[in-house]
Each structure stands twice: as C-alpha cells, then as structure tokens.
Amino acid sequence: MDIQTFEQMQLPEFIMKAVADMGFEKPTPVQTLTVPPLMERKDIIAKAPTGSGKTFAFGIPILCHIDTASKDIQVLILGPTRELVLQISDELRALAKYKPELRITPLYGGQPIEKQQNALKKKPHIIVATPGRLLDLLHRRSLKLDTIETVVLDEADRMLDMGFLPDVSKILERVKNRKNLAMLSATISREVMDISWVYQRDPVELTVPEDKENKPQIAQYWLSCLAVPKNEATLRILRLAEFERVIIFCNTKSMVRRLAEILQHKGINADCIHGDNTQSLREKVLRRFRSGDLQVLVATDVAARGLDIPNVDCVINYDLPPENEYYVHRIGRTGRAGRTGMSFLFVGYMDDVRLKDLIRRTHNDVIPVYFDENCNLVQDVEE
Ligand code: AMP
Asked: Can you tell me the distance from the alpha carbon of 204 to that of 66, in angstroms, rounded to the nearest whole number?
C-alpha cells in the first residue's frame, strides 16, 4: 500500500498528537518511504536531501520502538556536527512531547565531558552523538553500546567526508546486538557504499525523488555591487520586504563581525556566528534566530554547516561563495519543506567569470537584477 497520510502509518497516539501540534498535514516523501521499512526494523539506505524531513523519517519509527520502562540505551544516532546533533535532539524531543519519560541525550565535542558523563548516568533511551565525542566517552567507559538495537547515520556522506570513517566503523563494531542500521545521505558516495556493504544486510534502497514538493522553491537573483556597494545593497534588500528571518553569508570571520556591527548600527536586529565564537554564544544566537527573536543572522559557511532553521525567507550571499557547492548549501537554507524562499548573490569587481561558472555548473536559474532610482529591484536584461 502506498502511504500518503500519517493515519495510514498507524502511529501511536502520542506521536499523532505531537505531529498535529507541529502543524504537519501529511508525511513528506522521505517519510512515506522510510517509515514502513524502519517500523519493521529493516536496514535502509536513503538518498534524501537536507531539509526534506529526514529527522522524523527516522525519528517516528524510533520513538515507536522505544521501551521507556527499560533503562537501556536503545538507539544511537550519529551526525557529523554538534549543531546537527543538537538539532536532531531538539526535534526528537518535540516529537516525544507527549512521552516525557523518554530520555534523549546529545553528546558532542565542545561541552565539558563531565556534564555528558552525568547525563549518561540518568540512563537515556536515545543518544545522539558526533563520532569523536562518543568514542572519547567509550574510552572512558562512560557508556556501553551493547543494548543498542537501532543505529542511524544521519548525513552519512558528510560525516564520512569529514574523515569519520574509522570512528564510525569502530563504533559500529561495538554495537554488538544491533537489529538494524539506517543510513541517510544527500549523496551516496563511495564511503557510504562501503559502510553499507560491510554493516548492512539486504538494505532497502530508497531515493527521494526530486519532485516539486521537496525541491526547494527559491527565487534566485544576482546583483552587481559596483554602483551600489554591498552594505548599501544589503540594507536596501532588508527594506524590500518584511523578512522574518534572513541569513547573510560572508567568506571571512572578520567580515561577518563587521557586517553584523554595521547592521546593528543601522538599527537592524542582527547578530553573527563564526568559528571564533564560543559554542554557548553560538547556540544562544541560533536559539534567538530560531525563535524569531533575531531577524538577521550573519554567518560563515563553516558556522552554518548542517543547520536546519525553518522559515528562512531570504539568503544573501554577501560574498561570492569560495566554491560552487557552497552556493547550493547556502541558498538551501531557504525554500524548505515546500515553502518559497528568495536568495541574492552579490557580484563584485572581477567576479564575473566565477559567476558564469557558478550558474552553469549548479544549473540554477539566477536572474540578474539592479536597483532603480526608487530603490526597487528590477530585472536586468542581459545582452
Ligand atoms: P529535516 O530534513 O529533518 O531537517 O526537516 C526539515 C524541516 O521540515 C524541519 O523544519 C521539519 O520540522 C519540517 N518537517 C518535517 N516533517 C514535516 C512534515 N511532514 N510536514 C511539514 N514539515 C515537516
């Protein structure tokens, strides 16, 4: 049977209520594909883009299986970055809203290890971890993995790209009583296939089709910043519409800091994240941005890696991204889960060749625009 609705998935009441609270009307395509096999504890390998509803695609079946009367760790979710780990934990907690006895513990580098050791003493049912920190805790004998039944590798390609292949293998070797392994990945790289080959049995292979519903709907524009400098162009764009959440990407930490200050000085509710921030500061800024308390977030690519922030209405590429792939990641922050978004790309002196290359290689339709004398944006007609 083709699953189209949450009702058809025959989910427990506590999940149906949480899903209804979140305002979700129906499962996203990745959820319709992964929930049935994961309910049966099959191994899966799913190719699904970020922002397609992946977290609940594995989160729903996981929460259905947890025995909260037990004090065992039953599920391990591995992700490449602390931001992703925190995001997954937050989303699962929201989904488990009506099952408050279910304990979820995030484990990641950058937070004092003693704090996480104490959290483990409270006997979580689910742990969400970065591979490095989990191994560290395993070496300190702070936890054991032999009661774990389900393992999820989220953003598997990115995790393996970041050099975590040996760590992930070591961890999987220690999950001795594993019933199933779910891998979710935007691309199925060699390393992803290798892990699948070694650790999965007859995996169900799933590809989320790039249909209109889950393809980001983003109106993309580029703007020459020779006549109107970048700072001024930023201010004009922010005045164009009542954007609720805007992310601006710069290529350097110093530019991120400077731009945030300039915008603040102009009375705009802006703040920034970059690699030099302490983690607690970064989390604080991100929480404000997520909650709608902060309108403009200025960020470097590294600081914003892997983040899912819903309802971003506009992304500004203040600097041309250093690599074409970054452009795709940057604009992918908007236009998520069927909503429409807008993106701008500032093109400076000598950037023309790179711009042409970027448009050609990413197969994106990026429309040239300029400001008219009333500061309205109009489409430029290329010769
Ligand atoms: P993810 O791919 O898990 O990062 O999810 C992307 C966004 O989609 C998150 O903001 C989710 O809250 C949202 N989302 C997940 N499932 C659904 C659904 N069935 N309907 C609408 N939005 C959803």
From this structure: 22
pTM, two decimal places: 0.64
Please indicate, yes or no, if residue 212 is contained in any of the structural domains.
no
**CA 111 to ligand 1 center in whole angstroms:** 27
pLDDT digits (tens, 9 = 90+) for 3-50: 789 999 999 999 999 999 988 889 999 999 999 999 999 999 999 887
List, as one string, the DSSP characters of 156-180: HHHHIIIIIHHHHHHHHHH-TT--E
Q: Looking at ligand 1, which residue's alpha carbon is closest to its atom 20?
A: 24
Distance 56 CA to ligand 1 centre (A): 7
180 and 88, same structural domain? yes
Q: Does a structural domain hold residue 1?
A: no
Contacts of 63 (CB under 8 A, 6+ apart): 14, 15, 92, 95, 96, 99, 102
Query: What's the domain count of the chain?
Result: 2
User: For a substitution probing ligand 1, which of 21, 55, 185 has the most ligand atoms within 8 Å of its CB?
Assistant: 55
pLDDT tens digits, 149-203? 999 999 999 899 888 999 999 999 999 999 999 999 988 888 899 999 999 999 9
Domain-terminating residue out of 207, 237, 255: 207
Flag whether pLDDT at 214 surpasses 60: no
Where does a domain end: 188, 207, 226?
Answer: 207
pLDDT band at 337 (very low <50, low <70, confident <90, very high): low
| Whether residue 270 sits in one domain with residue 224 | yes
Ligand 1: which residue has its CA nearest to atom 4?
51
In whole angstroms, give the CA distance from residue 131 to residue 9.
32
CA of 283 to the centre of ligand 1 (A): 21
CATH number of the structural domain spanning residue 364: 3.40.50.300
